[in-house]
Amino acid sequence: MYERLKDKSKMPTLEEFVVHIGKLKEAYKKIVEFLSKEVNSENILKFDAHSRCWKINFYIKKEYVCDIIAEKDAFMIVTRLSEENIQKIMQDDILQYTKECIDNSPFRHRGWIEYRILSLEHLKDVEKILWVRTSGKQKSNSLK
Question: Which CATH number, 3.90.1150, 1.10.3470, 1.25.40, 3.30.1760, labels domain 14-134?
């Protein structure tokens, strides 16, 4: 259902990566803009051995922020949060879908969160998660 770019022998172009996301490419572009402008992150396209697919890795001064994995007509954000930060997000005004994604992430017990973006409605919560993830590291003074 959420087919990923799995051919390790063929590195996709950024355009192919975005085309694979399909109907949610505008949401993808907004998240990348948020990561670039609000938290001043850099990124690199690489193959993830764990997920066995191509992803874009975002980081600030070599410190991990998140990954974006392209899926057919969707994309997934993967990030890692402390238990304290997970609780901070869970107490915020977030969608039930977001709470379920956090609670049902396969490696939640280790702080790893997997959030599949299925609509533009999910962007606000993803930005909250990424803002908490990068708090203290961003160069922007604006707060979401």
Answer: 3.90.1150
